[in-house]
Amino acid sequence: MGFTLAVIGRPNVGKSTLFNRLVGKRLAIVDDQPGVTRDRREGDARLSDLRFRVIDTAGLEEAFDESMEGRMRRQTEMALEEADVAVLLIDARAGVMPLDAHFAKFLRKHSTPVILVANKCEGAAGQPGLMEAYSLGLGDPIPLSAEHGEGMLDLYQALLPYE
Ligand code: GDP
Ligand code: MG
Description:
6 strands; GTPase Der
């Protein structure tokens, strides 16, 4: 269990789908019980021969006690504290949203290295969003489809240095 990866991003970009793909069906719970606050989930991930710990910053959507920005910041900070590397996930089909830019700005100032991943890139619908992702200032985005398992080799190669 070499390193810890935090999966970060605004709601609905596919964080839990990626988490489930990395951790396996054993722990798969994409839809949490209504009213149940889960601050996050952690699991032992496998990606080919890589073994690492992954943190899904779930629960962001279910917390009621703070502003959106406050919840986001707290969740992100807690995950980053333990992470050796973070994935900032965006939804390439939706394009770059203000909240994505907010996360990117926060992560650019943070010392934890960030891999920018553009999810929902299966087919052609993600292409414009993939290009927009360069504007986030986090380097080349990796095109991925967490749902269909496409782009996992590129993610693997991006994670290799942290082994
Ligand atoms: P989270 O809120 O960031 O954890 O996002 P979820 O993992 O719950 O996914 C949000 C929605 O996006 C769900 O309906 C998923 O099925 C969908 N989704 C996740 N990954 C992909 C993908 O690669 N392609 C497409 N088209 N949809 C996806
Ligand atoms: Mg989730």
